[in-house]
Design goal:
4-stranded antiparallel β-sheet; alpha+beta; 165 residues; 32% helix
């Protein structure tokens, strides 16, 4: 089972004067909502997680949804033996999360984990569903915390671009 989650940082709070209704995409993706994220295989009790406190969690959710779509470009879908690759890099770090899809399965590795650590592996269908659910749940949490965010056109666009499966 796949679990994707986050925690917001108290060390890097959003500026109090932020107008979330009018925040630009760059602000939403890179400057606001900092914390940590994780992807966990609850069956194997293993996870890929950050512990830096500064990861923009909305950007992580957004990028994860983009990546899931990017590694689904082969018209043969889950029948394709050709590996498809993508990476999620962190702006303030050289570390990356690496994704490889083959035959409908996605391996997920983090560069900062020991080299002998096996990748997390999930079906592409499960990863897509959970990534989109995570995005929508995160947006719901953030709009509860921040007045005006639910009225931001970039957030509307994001939700419509990646609807729940």
């Amino acid at each position: 089972m796949l679990d994707i989650g986050y925690s917001l940082s108290r060390r890097f709070p959003d500026p109090p004067q932020t107008d979330y209704r009018r925040a630009e995409v760059k602000e939403l993706r890179h400057d606001l909502f900092c914390g940590d994220v994780y992807l966990a295989d609850t069956s194997a009790d293993r996870e890929v997680s950050t512990a830096w406190g500064w990861v923009p969690v909305l950007d992580f959710a957004w990028a994860l949804c983009d990546i899931v779509e990017r590694i689904d470009q082969d018209p043969r879908g889950s029948r394709s033996s050709t590996p498809q690759y993508a990476e999620l890099d962190f702006t303030e770090s050289a570390d990356r999360i690496l994704f490889q899809r083959r035959f409908g399965w996605v391996d997920i590795e983090a560069e900062w984990l020991p080299g002998d650590e096996p990748p997390l592996t999930f079906s592409h269908r499960l990863l897509r569903r959970e990534a989109r659910d995570f995005l929508h749940d995160l947006i719901a949490d953030l709009t509860d915390l921040h007045d005006g965010l639910a009225d931001n056109p970039a957030v509307w666009d994001l939700q419509s671009r990646f609807p729940r499966c």
